[in-house]
Amino acid sequence: MTPHDQMVFIVDDDVRIREALGELLESHGMRAVAFGSAGDYVLADKPDVPACLILDVELPDINGLDLQKQIAEGDHPPIVFITGHGDIPSSVRAIKHGAVDFLTKPFSDTDLMVAIRAAIAQDRERRSERAELTVLRQRYRELTQREREVLPLVVSGLLNKQAAAELGISEVTLQIHRRNVMQKMVAASLADLVRMAERLEIPISHSRRTGGNGV
């Protein structure tokens, strides 16, 4: 991990806090970009790297908790709240909506750095999961229509004979499609393919009706 593959965003209207946090992060080898308002942060271009957002609760243009709610549906880094006026309802709301921590000023450098590292690690893991899902979706798009029909039958636990009957094809043809699905999805085992189907949210078939035997 290097200072160039991660970022910390600071949103606080107190210039002294922004400068102090910037110096602290620099001393730990971390890059930081500071903003005096939520609006400036939202409009800024942001590098596509694992990150953390240090967010003050009281801002000149919007409450930090309201900003958290506004950006919840988007792709934003995990938040570490800082505030000089902390209260239990605010901290509960922040954590409930995904904040990594809620620190009341004055807080220790150690507590802040622990929270920041946890946030960046969380963002790194999320990005890895999203990248893996993108690969799975690409593999799924490369399946033929028939292979896409075979996949949910296979992961539902149907025997080859049952799945073939469901689709009205021969068992041999079903086995060929099944093998192609496993290869294209790069699944090491049936259990692996089931996990992939779950991540792709592919509906699992539970039908047991009997079909024909044609190819």
TrEMBL record:
Keywords: DNA-binding, Phosphoprotein, Transcription, Transcription regulation, Two-component regulatory system. The modification 4-aspartylphosphate is found at D56. SMART domains: HTH_LUXR (SM00421), REC (SM00448). One of its GO terms (biological process) is regulation of DNA-templated transcription. Pfam families: GerE (PF00196), Response_reg (PF00072). This is Two component transcriptional regulator, LuxR family. One of its GO terms (molecular function) is DNA binding. Residues 136-201 form the HTH luxR-type domain. Residues 7-120 form the Response regulatory domain.
